[in-house]
Amino acid sequence: MGMVDTNKSLKIITIILSVLLIGSSFQLYTSLEKINLQNQTITSLVAETNSQKQTISGLEISVNNLKQNLSRTETQLKNETQRSKQFEEEIINLTMVSRADYGVLAVDDNDVGHLIPLEVIIKDGKGSLFLNVANVLFDETLQSSAQTAIQVARDVSKKNMADKDILINIKSPLVEERLLISGGSAGGAITLTAIAAIQGKTLRKDVLMTGTINNDHSIGLIGSPRSKGLAARDAGAVLFLVPVGQKDEVGKIGIEVREVGTIEDAMTYVLQ
Fold it and tell me: Tell me: the pLDDT tens digits for 70-88?
């Protein structure tokens, strides 16, 4: 009886161990399958990553090529723009009748005055007016002020200029501060320069002025007269002309300051 029980127990143990072995083998197989799947996934991800790296590398090459093409295009455009400007200047020189140059006074963001080159060119044309301003901020009054200036210059010179075009160039060198011409304050200087161009005269560079121009030839008030006076002095002027009533605002600046009521008054000091 004891032997039978022992054999029976051994069988049971064997069965249990077999079940456990089968279960362990199944779990091991399942784990190995998971590992294989994970390895396949990792391999796939590595391949995809390498493919993306190649794509990125190709895109970087394309971007660099585009940058190089853009740089070449910008250079070509810049060269074409320069050639176009040269061509325009050559055409103007061919048709130019006369020119005069002077200066207008402006202030920057810190209320510091600056002298900006001013040029008026008269050429054969159809009575048109062109205003070219570079590196200078200006308000809407500059255009109307320039038109008034040319009209007054025609009145003073007694010429209708119907067959002539007039070009006004106000081009400042590049500076860090923003230069501003406001309130038509360049009107008087533009008028004097236009008169000089029409009459074939020159302007004294050691006499500078500021002031608006009105249809009745009067010179109107401007802003920042002292800052502009200091700029005139620093530019080498020995005489600074201002609108009537603003001499005291300029104060002592080391050069002579005089008030002018009309453009005709200013002409006596500036035109020669």
Answer: 888 887 777 776 666 665 5
Q: What values do phi and psi take at 209, rounded to 5?
A: -140, 165
Kindly state whether residue 164 falls inside one of the protein's structural domains: yes
Against a cut of 0.90, is the pTM above it? no
- Residue 7 has, within 13 A of its CA and on its CB side, a CA count of 4
Number of structural domains found in the chain: 1
Q: What single letter denotes the amino acid at residue 21?
A: L
**Per-residue pLDDT reduced to its tens digit, 137-192:** 877 788 899 999 999 999 999 988 889 999 999 988 766 567 878 778 999 999 99
CATH code for the domain of 256:
3.30.230.10
> Which DSSP symbol is given to 132?
E
Paired tokens of 260: 């002018």
- Nearest-angstrom CA–CA distance, 129 and 47: 69
Cβ within 8 Å of residue 189, ≥6 positions away = 102, 103, 104, 105, 118, 208, 209, 210
Write out the H or E segment, with its range, that includes residue 51. helix 2-95
Six-digit token pair at 111? 């209320």
Q: Is the dihedral of CA 262, 251, 208, 258 positive or negative?
A: positive
The H-assigned helical ranges of 165-243 are 187-199, 225-234
Nearest to 128 by CA among 162, 158, 173, 103: 162
What's the DSSP call for residue 173? P
Give the bridge partners for 131, in sequence order.
168
Residue 14 placed within a domain = no
Instruction: Please give the DSSP secondary-structure letter assigned to residue 163.
Output: T
**Is 82 part of a structural domain of the chain?**
no
**Domain assignment of residue 16, yes or no:** no
Torsions phi, psi for 234 (to 5 deg)? -65, -25
| Domain limits for position 201 | 102-270
